[in-house]
Amino acid sequence: MKKKTTCRFSLLMISVVFFMVSCNEKSATYTNVIPVDAAIVLSFDLKSTMEKAGLNGEENAELKQKLADVFGEEMNAESFALFERIIKDPAESGIDIASPLYVFFQKKTEAIAFVAKIGNKNKLKSLLNVLV
Q1: Is 97 within 8 Å of 10 (Cβ atoms)?
Q2: Tens-digit pLDDT profile for the chain (132 aa)?
Q3: Does any domain span residue 6?
Q4: Which of 67, 72, 92, 125 has the most CB atoms less than 10 A away?
Q5: What is the tally of structural domains in the chain?
Q6: Residue 3 counted as domain residue
Q7: DSSP-derived pairing of the beta strands 101-105 and 112-115
């Protein structure tokens, strides 16, 4: 009887430790800018989404080229060149696509914002200069 109780207790403790370790995932430091009173917070795993959409491999080069052509009609040469580089390699945006991207909505101002981890500060500055 005592052996059975010890075995059950051990199993329970192992389960509790496993649960605590799996739930103890530290949040990313860049998420501290998301307001605590945000109405909605969405998280996107860009890397996984791109893999599922088949946008990572060379097999979809035709699709990537069509995207570039469609958006290229509305852009100047500098913007288009950067856009093409980003389509070929999303890391060219300066955003770390291996980390989650968060979108949040504010109740009072109806503002929408996003938070992403910076992968390369200079590339992100280049992107922002082209966008602005």
Answers
A1: no
A2: 555 554 444 444 444 344 443 344 455 688 888 888 888 899 989 888 888 877 776 667 777 777 777 777 777 888 888 888 888 888 888 999 899 999 998 878 777 888 999 999 999 998 888 877
A3: no
A4: 92
A5: 1
A6: no
A7: antiparallel
Sheet of 101-105: strand order equals 40-44, 101-105, 112-115
The amino acid that residue 35 corresponds to is P
36: which 2 tokens?
């605590």
For residue 115, the SS3 value is: strand
Host domain of residue 53: 26-131
Distances (CA, A) of 50 to 47, 96, 104, 123, 127: 5, 13, 21, 20, 20
Q: What radius of gyration do the chain's Cα atoms show? A: 22
Residue with token string 């060219």: 92
Residue whose token pair is 């917070």: 41
Q: What is the pTM of this model?
A: 0.63
Say how many residues make up the chain.
Answer: 132
What whole-number distance in Å separates Cα of residue 55 and Cα of residue 47? 10
How far apart (Å, rounded) are the C-alpha atoms in residues 81 and 62?
A: 17
Residue 1 lies in a domain: no
Do the domain assignments include residue 10? no
